[in-house]
Amino acid sequence: MSSAAKNQRSTSRVTKKKTTGPKDAAPKKAEKGSKYEYVELTKAQLTSVTAQHFYAVVIDATFPYKTNQERYICSLKIVDPSLYLKKEKGTGDNSDYATLVLYAKRFEDLPIIHRLGDIIRIHRATIRLYNGQRQFNANIFYSSSWALFSTDKKSALQEIGGQEATSDLVPFSHSGKNFTFQKNEAGIVQNIRKWAQQYFTQYSVISNDMFTALNKAQAQKGDFDVVAKILQIHELDEYTNELKLKDASGQVFYTLALKLKFPHLRTGEVVRIRSATYDETSTQKKVLLLSHYSNIVTFISTSKLAKELRGKITDDRAVEKAALKQDVSLSAVVLTEVDKKHAGLPAHSLHDLFHNADSDKELSSKDTFRTQFYVTKIEPSDVKEWVKAYDRKTKKVTSLKGSAAKGGDNIFQVSFLVKDASTQLNNNTYRVLLYTHDGLGANFFNGVKADNLHKNADARKKLEEYSELLTRFNSYVDAVVERRNGFYFIKDTRIVY
Amino acid sequence: MSKSQQVQQQSAFKQLYTELFNNGGDFGKVSNNLKKPLKCYVKESYPHFLVTDGYFFVTPYFTKEAVTEFHSKFPNVNIVDLHDKVIVINNWSLELRRVNSAEVFTSYANLEARLIVHSFKPNLQERLNPTRYPVNLYRDDEFKTTIQHFRHQALQQSLAKNLKQENIPDIAKVTGGDKKAKVDAGIVRASTSKGDEFSDFSFKEGNTATIRIQDIFVQEKGKDALSKLGGEGDVKVKGGARGKAKAASKSAKGKKVSAKKADVAAADVRKSVDKIVKYTPNKPSSRKETPQKSQSVPAAGKSSAKKTATGSKKTLPANPSPSGKKSTKTTDQMTMAQFKRYLEWHEKKKGGKTSSGGKVLGKRSAGKASATSGKASKASKRSAKK
DNA sequence: GGGTTTTGGGG
């Protein structure tokens, strides 16, 4: 009858307290087979006072939030093969759904939805009609329980290595200490998973009536939902990421997303924001405000909507171009782009690169890293000395100053004194080198080659402008660096402004 | 060098605090037209006292004079019971402080612009209009960025001053193929200041002595009000000086505060009342938890505005504390949940240090804050939140 | 329940 049971919570979340935990995900009462009978959302008896069990696909969710001293809530929108399309005429392919409200005494007892399209199993929920809609209630603090199954191969957290891997029939997270699974459930999970994949492939799921276009955000009275592509994730500080979003309307907005709360977000992905408000106090850039119950979720891989938006929305850097015309801009500008071949290279902070690289086993075993920083100072301060004559045999460099022709090749020999969020408050600055003697970083200055800057006024002027651009406030460099002899050299990185 | 705010900033706090940072922390350089009385809503009064301008909440820091004057003029009103009330801050100033942002949530990147209150009064009858849910100014995207800009300037200035002699690694030195070469060779100290934290700032750090809300609580409810109720009177406050050990020793010295330079601007703060909170057509609002015979607000746009003689000493709140007289009960104005919360808060703090700002409280602080009253004006209503 | 805590940079 039951299989795949685990002793520990399968969730990766850390249970801070150890108070009397809620009951098992699947309270075991009878010893006989089908203890739980799963009903379709549409079949659940509205008149029944008995708790019911079901499997459903999540298409929206709040983040679990505290409402008072003793309660936490998580509200979801769910669908299944019996309930997913509005039947009324003129509603097009607008989605229909039931709501599921889970109540708990602890934050840890509620499900965190990072991705739409995943499957949730509920035991012992009650149902009623609320505002003409089917609403299921699950009191996790009493006897209800939940379990989340990933529709894609890996859950959102498993994809970033933040959660233990599980097989197809094991939930990546569940309430309670234990999880039970009846033999007949395997088919149910596989069926609804397949249905979910097809459903997201054929429909938008998040139909137009379920979100607001960003170019209409300012006119909204209260909060609204958004569907947009993440153009950029800027690490504002140790705890916060600033997302640069753009939706189908073409409007760009920024919003702050706590790293701990939304660890699964990645540049280029399409997301849905459940509840945001227009910030009337931001005058330098468009900003969306989030609340503690706000959520930012991605879509399962088969999502038609996400796929369309990923391909349709592009970054024209219009905001940045305008920002660079101001004396001081509050919009972060990432000046560079790294070669596509490093797309999968994980990023590391300067703290890791300079304070942990020799002590951490993982870090010390690697020599190529992706990293972001801002340049506080550039040496030589005299731009004309950025390019030197280099003798490959003696490894000696010579200033090109003076009329005498120098032998050897012209190379860039520049040192950037940089800093980032992980080192924001300390008294250090870190050396990252742009030395092109071996070819590394040769294209950094976007086409400006290493030439005698004492003579080539044109090149010198461009580099002086880049010097200013690099060291100006709110300018950032996203680079790939290679460690050689304890030094980090920029490579495969190019300024795009 | 500062930004061009083409659009008028709607939040008074954001505009004020931003200007302070953009002017190097010098309150004297902040636009005088912004130095007007501040009318704000008291979002919370204990264990944290927070006021809002309709958009953001910040912590007001009361000087001893402000507290003394308040208690003198409003003998039956507890500062700690001002939750959900409106107050008008007639005399104030701003100052920059270096703090530990890991402990002070109304700060960012170890910097805090503090609103020093020299004189304020309650507008017990006034209700402000509903506004957006107030959020922490120090968590605002643009404001955080403004503070980063401030630090960026300080760092670059420090670097220009301390790293005059350049030192670029020789190519011969970096091409050895030495796998064991350590990366710490790339670490460059920005300034010669002691400690690991960057501290080479040029701004004049504020040092106005203020009174912690916990002390005001004890003053108003009695030194053992808390312990009597099960909590501990000995509470510790987070924040203030940077570094715990440092904070303790520092405050222990109890340095005196020079009352002169103190608030250059304090004196300028007068003019007419600023319309901090947007007023709106009034509509009688009724609050559930505070049974107050709230006067229904006049129909006009501005409203109930009881212009209680602000500067006069005679004024007695038409409608004192809920109980009609100064309350000493710690449970006043609190729901069971809130009560439980503050008891827990005290419980958690006990055993900690006693000082907060790193300054001594006792001595009079800076500036002879002359309470200038603006005319309380545009009143409005604020529907009670649940 | 389409919402507002403090853990006061998951809540």
What does this 3D model show about the protein?
Chain A has 497 residues and is mostly beta strands. Chain A folds into three domains: 151 residues, OB fold (Dihydrolipoamide Acetyltransferase, E2P); 102 residues, OB fold (Dihydrolipoamide Acetyltransferase, E2P), CATH 2.40.50; 163 residues, Nucleic acid-binding proteins (OB fold (Dihydrolipoamide Acetyltransferase, E2P)). In chain A, strands 16, 18, 19, 20, 21, 22, 23 and 24 form an eight-stranded mixed β-sheet that branches. A five-stranded mixed barrel of chain A has the order 1-3-4-7-6. Chain A has a five-stranded mixed beta barrel with strand order 10-11-12-14-13. Chain B is an alpha/beta fold. Chain B has a domain of 203 residues: Telomere-binding Protein Beta Subunit, Chain B, CATH 2.40.200.10. Chain B has eight helices and eight strands; from the N terminus they run αββββαβββααβαααα. Chain B has a seven-stranded mixed β-sheet with strand order 4-6-5-1-2-3-7. In chain B, β2 and β3 form a beta hairpin. In chain B, α1 runs parallel beside α3. Chains A and B meet through β12, α5, β18, β21 and β22 of A and α3, α4, β8 and α8 of B. β22 of chain A pairs antiparallel with β8 of chain B. The structure holds one DNA strand of 11 nucleotides. Chain A: This is Telomere-binding protein subunit alpha.
